[in-house]
Amino acid sequence: MNKMKIWNYQAFLPLLVLAVLILINLLKGADYFSISIINGAIYGNIPNILFGASELVILAIGMTLVTSSSGGQDISVGVAATITSSVFVRVVLNAHEVTLMTVVGAFLVSCLVGIAIGAFNGTLVAIFNVQPMVATLILFTAGRSIAFLIDGRLSPILANRITNQIGSVIPGVPVQTPILLTVVFIILFSILLKITNLKLYAQCVGINQKAARLNGINPVIVKLLTYIILGVCSAVAGFIAVTKAGRHDSVNLLRFVEMDAILAVAIGGNALSGGKFSITGSVIGAYTIEVLNRTLLRLEVGTETIKAFKAVFIIILMILASPVARGTAAKAVQWIRARCTGIVRLPASEKAEASEGSEVDLSVEKEV
Amino acid sequence: MQNVLEMSGICKSFPGVRALHNVSFSLRKGEVHALMGENGAGKSTLIKVITGVYEKDTGQILVEGKALHFRSPQEAQNFGIGAVYQEIMLCPNLTVAENLFIGRGQHALVNWKRMKEQAAHLLHSLDIPARPTQQLSSCSLAVQQMIAIARAIDMNCRILILDEPTSSLDEEEVQKLFRLMRELKARGVGIIFVTHFLDQVYEISDRITVLRNGEFIGEYEAASLPQFELVSKMMGKALDDVSQIKKEQPLSNQRGIPVYEAVGLSSTAGIKPFNFTIHKGEVNGFIGLLGSGRSEAARAIYAADKVISGEVKVNGKKVKIREPLHAMKLGIGYLPEDRKSDGIIADLSVRENIILALQVLKGFFKPFSRKQAELFAEEYIKSLNIKTASTSTPVKSLSGGNQQKVIIARWLLTHPEYLILDEPTRGIDVGTKVEIQKLVLKLAREGVSITFISSEIEEMLRTCSRLIVMKDREIAGELSGEDVTERDIMYVIAGGGTQP
Q: Nearest-CA neighbor of B403 among B443, B460, B354, B359?
């Protein structure tokens, strides 16, 4: 019974979707899981997914926090990452010689910029009570122009060994560097949640701000903090994105990533109205989106039409995640359990409804 | 005289709560009938049954002699029953005329000219000082309230319900409103008037109906019901099994440095500057009707509302309490009046709700281990007998009484020196009420100072050794000693000030 609760519908859904997607891929070709080793590093479908989703995973983590505390979303994350990475590139290119120290230093400077951006958005949301989406719309609109100006109206190229290796593979390491960076980030973030009360505070503020205040929590500081953390997430994502690309294209870098980050939070079973959250769910959600993108490519859907197919898939997903479908599923589970144990606990009218719903849901379960 | 509304045997239950039980109510043509009762007495439910927001379980409603029941407020309105609520539900950014008629007409096209003429006529006939083209937000609150009434009565209104229309008005504005009410009365409109201000009831009402705990207490002619008796009928006696509870001889007799002392304390919530002290192991209470300032006083002590004046000493040391965290650090705990909106973190688990205050006191960088949190939660679930499936159950799925115990557990866990309990027993069953009262006295014996606030006068008499009587947002008097009776309290509340 307890185990059933842990595997509730919310956590179950993204995993189910992931499983369905992998199944589709396997039907297309059994070589889906095959990997190859080129120059000592592992490549293949799965490593490519992990590689491709790096920035999205990091942004989804930060987005989850902001969603929880403020009940709204930051739509400027992609733009913020573009600004921070333009600063990073600028610092690196201004150095006489690119050493590991300059890269680390440049990265830290870009993190400071990320903190400043987070503080700006956070101030609007936490102190001035501006709707998060409206507050972040400001940077969303202006950000890419700012990055373009920092770039000196160019698309500067990062042509050095160190940043190239960060964006691809360090010789002797079998896993691509962005994957490692993402793993390190997730670990650091888990430690942060472990050694602080960030999760408890953010959830309290998101669920009941008045009660949180009466229990000594300062809602303004908590919200501000979550936006600042998201700013750092943007800086890390921008760093990975620009080293991957090798040049800073202020127009196209991480374009539309904010929508995917919000989607990842939603697929992860988190309420976009704030409150309780699951980072694990958002991370799975982010990888699911990447798998979906690549599945569509593998099914040879044209790049122009890929977004339409993606939309169809998301509609199905959101309907399955809706409270209506969840209620039907819960009834179905109850009905099946009643059937199995031979005890009918439902009243007659509800039973009829439940049996209708169960047919739909059983078919989904059978697919797994 | 002709009854425009006649209700009898009205019952209405919600899951787990009996909101109305066998309630009768009648309204004559051209009278103002006050509907009185403390919070939770069933006034709002009764109004919502009349206006069709709720459907009655049993009972009969006769409107002008015909048995009717409305399925929606729209239906009731079409029949001539208008309601104006405490918060003005108009659009401040539209004009007066638009507010009067919007959502009214069945036509897709609006005849602006005609609408303005009609609005001007209506405003003039009711003597409301506003122009049709004026933006609503530029009118004073009282005028806005009158416009809301004008809107309600516009369609051959026969019954007008005013739910706390005066709570945000000053004396002069109240008089304007009363003039309008008298004007309507003269036209034969029956008015149901809900308010917490006793003086206003006597100024305008013809008859008074009192409800208590969803029960019909009685219907009286205002002229023949002294204010004192009205108060006692509203507060009533709680018939709970509490004979075994006995107030301890208060420790406060042994004077010394007070645990908490305030001089001239006031807050933005409108409480007038007041002085207050409490000693170690003392149980005292703020008593008064709803809106008397009893909760605001408690909130000012805890800095739940912004404190604007006052000098505070805790254990003899001068301190500044600017926000709840300061109060917490000084060993003050506060159980808020509104459990749902100020108390529980609904979606979080019982465990997280219990450890919350202590966790915040311990600090952001020092989270309790899961094991420690479990131990704390289990300890208090056991000692307070909280009925929950597990420590991880979301607190919102618990019953009201158990939710209240979770919040009490939250504060007990911090081992406070001074605990403020605002309505800890509201909306919970008798058994739990008794448990909480016993707990209060036990804590006091252990040396905790407690301020206890309750709408139930008996409960206050049982637990408190000193009662501070509040009226109109200030202290009206103070009563202490073994021989305080309900009568004494009611005299102070009803404005006598001194005992006969």
A: B354
CA A30-A34-A40 angle, to 5 degrees, is 170
Task: Measure CB to CB from residue A216 to each of B324, B347, B367 and give the nearest one.
Answer: B324
- Structural domains in chain B plus CATH codes: 3-235 (3.40.50.300), 278-303+321-493 (3.40.50.300)
CA-to-CA separations, A162 to A166, A170, A237, in angstroms, rounded: 6, 9, 17
Residue B43 has pLDDT above 60, yes or no: yes
Contact between B47 and B162 under an 8 Å Cβ cutoff? The reply is no
SS3 B285: strand
User: Which tens digits make up the pLDDT trace of B438-456?
Assistant: 899 999 999 999 999 987 7
Number of helical H runs and strand E runs in chain B: 16, 20
What are the chain B neighbours of A218 within 8 Å (beta carbons)?
323, 325
Chain A nearest C-alpha distance from B366 (Å): 6
C-beta of residue B378 within 8 angstroms of C-beta of residue B346: no
A208 contacts in B (CB within 8 Å)?
Answer: 341-342, 344-346
What are the helix (H) ranges across B303-362?
324-329, 350-362
Supply the pTM of this predicted model: 0.74
In this structure, are residues B470 and B286 in contact, taking their beta carbons and an 8 Å threshold? yes
Q: Which ipTM did the prediction report?
A: 0.83
What's CA A68's distance to the chain center, in Å? 14
Could you tell me the two tokens for A331?
A: 């009834």
Handedness of CA A335, A341, A345, A348 (dihedral sign): positive
DSSP string of B217-237, one letter each residue: EEEEEGGGS-HHHHHHHHH--
- Substitution target in B356, B392, B414 with the highest count of A β-carbons within 10 Å is B356
Chain B hits for A195, Cβ within 8 Å: 365, 367
Residue A267 contacts residue A310 (beta carbons within 8 Å): no
Q: How confident is the model at residue B497 (pLDDT cuts 50, 70, 90)?
A: low
Q: What is the pLDDT along chain A (368 residues), one digit of tens a residue?
A: 333 444 456 667 778 888 888 898 888 888 888 888 888 888 988 999 999 999 999 999 999 999 999 999 999 999 999 999 999 999 999 988 889 999 999 999 999 999 999 999 999 999 999 999 999 999 999 999 999 999 988 889 998 999 999 999 999 899 999 999 999 999 999 999 999 999 999 999 999 999 999 999 999 999 999 999 999 999 999 999 999 999 999 999 999 999 999 999 988 888 899 999 999 989 999 999 999 988 988 888 888 888 888 888 888 887 877 778 777 877 888 788 777 765 544 444 443 443 333 333 333 333 33
- Hey, what are B44's tokens? 């709002």
Tokens for B483? 């021989």
E strand spans, chain A: 35-38, 41-44
What is the distance between the alpha carbons of residues A353 and A346, in angstroms, rounded to a whole number?
A: 10
Chain Cα centroid distance, residue B424: 14
Question: What is the spatial distance between Cα A84 and Cα B132, in angstroms, rounded to a whole number?
Answer: 55
Provide φ and ψ at B70, rounded to 5°: -95, 140
Angstrom CA distances, A7 to A196, A265, A340, B190, B434, stand at: 26, 18, 20, 59, 40
- Enter the tokens of residue B306: 């912004």
Q: Phi, psi at residue B105, to the nearest 5°? A: -70, 150
Give chain A's domains with CATH numbers: 17-321 (1.10.3470), 325-367 (no CATH)
Provide mean pLDDT across the span B218-243. Answer: 73
Predicted pLDDT of residue B241? 42
B467 touches B460 (CB < 8 A): yes
Show Cβ contacts of residue B250 under 8 Å, excluding neighbours closer than 6 positions. B281, B282, B283, B444, B465, B466
Mean pLDDT of B106-118: 77
Residue of B nearest to A275 (CA): B347
Give the chain A residue nearest B352 (alpha carbons).
A200
Phi, psi of A303 (to 5 degrees): -60, -25
